[in-house]
């Protein structure tokens, strides 16, 4: 049985209203996000190969070096960087090796302190030297992976002053140091919140979260930022205020007129608005009459369950190291096998699939990468690849395109429960792959949040495209967008020292 996708011949009154609301929302979001940058000077520097952004109001305030977490970038730390710069500090934010726009991959043994960690410590010390004037101690602020790096830097560098750790965990913290430390942990971070309290009680066994411990040699505080987890903590108003107050006390800096602008909700609003605004853009494209295969629940179960079971078993024997990114080569293989099995089953069950409309696919990919991606890159996370990542994106396309074409066919016209089940089956197949080789594929677990966000944003754009130009066009455009999103977010890594 064949069915044509519902035609989208024009904007309904409801769609026009939603588009107007999205325009207003995007205008408000951009105004708020730009207000957080108002009056600041952004200067791009290089410390050897390390890209560094210097942010200040123009004056030479106390220096603060800011470091991001694993799979992060300078842009992810922009909320803290801009708030502190508007508070009178001179901020130096940089990309670790293998991250953001740094051209060099991470190296060394990721399981040994003297391996990758020491390389990142040395890189940070070099940036501290760049920021230091030799007189004023340099403050450090970092998130997640960077917290362990910064603690080790603080314990060996005399030029370092206070350190602020977001979502911290480091075995280098003890009752003797670091000397001046604020820990900010999300209330929804569970074990990390317990660690923050233990770190505080190393200095005073009677202390509790929210207390400040001060002795002749040490100042330490640990707080919970309410209603945030490991990522949203980067936009927490409580976190921003506590960080600035902690530094102001150390540097005796008084900026009572300064109120940090919270950028988390405006960023979400902007990305949501850009997703909604794709509809009127795409509906200017002439709709096509494209017949697509319809699957009953039994055929759907076959197309979903067979690749979910077979793909981890087929891919398991392969030991691939042709891409300079942790588990990216396996991920490309997994996507390719999964997608090709699903496409093959669709061909077997329903016959030939229509050719994709290349123009419609290009419009989708361009909106996802150039419009949505530009906004994300400016305000939230790196989305533009360093030159060395282009070959990685091309390799990921080989797996992502067949995977997304099959996914688009399964989602097209399907009830909500089927769309959810289809995606859950894929996540289950990745989990099975990790279970088969936990040590080698552990980092695959970190792809799950990227894929969830992908379906919430680009997936909506894909459904709009499928209704107008067919699921083949949607799958092709989404495949390119998925390869791009994965290629710019995962850290580059090369074996060796």
Describe the structure.
The chain has helices spanning 13-35, 78-86, 113-131, 145-154, 191-203, 237-251, 264-282, 297-315, 328-350, 358-379, 390-411, 416-436, 438-441, 447-469, 471-489, and strands spanning 2-3, 41-47, 50-56, 63-67, 90-94, 138-143, 160-166, 180-186, 212-214, 219-225, 292-293. With 497 residues, it is an alpha/beta fold. It folds into 2 domains: 2-25 and 266-489, no CATH class; 38-260, Rossmann fold (3-Layer(aba) Sandwich), CATH 3.40.50. The longest helix has 23 residues, at 13-35. The radius of gyration is 24 Å and the shape is globular. Residues 1-5 have low confidence and may be disordered.
Overview in brief:
By secondary structure, the protein is α/β, with parallel strands linked by helices. The protein has 2 domains: 2-25 and 266-489, no CATH class; 38-260, Rossmann fold (3-Layer(aba) Sandwich), CATH 3.40.50.1820. 53% of the residues lie in helices and 12% in strands.
Give a quick set of tags describing it.
9-stranded mixed beta sheet, two-stranded antiparallel sheet, globular, disordered N terminus, 497 residues, alpha/beta, Rossmann fold
Topology summary:
Elements: E1 2-3, H1 13-35, E2 41-47, E3 50-56, E4 63-67, H2 78-86, E5 90-94, H3 113-131, E6 138-143, H4 145-154, E7 160-166, E8 180-186, H5 191-203, E9 212-214, E10 219-225, H6 237-251, H7 264-282, E11 292-293, H8 297-315, H9 328-350, H10 358-379, H11 390-411, H12 416-436, H13 438-441, H14 447-469, H15 471-489
Parallel strand pairs: 4-5, 4-6, 6-7, 7-8, 8-10
Antiparallel strand pairs: 1-11, 2-3, 3-5, 9-10
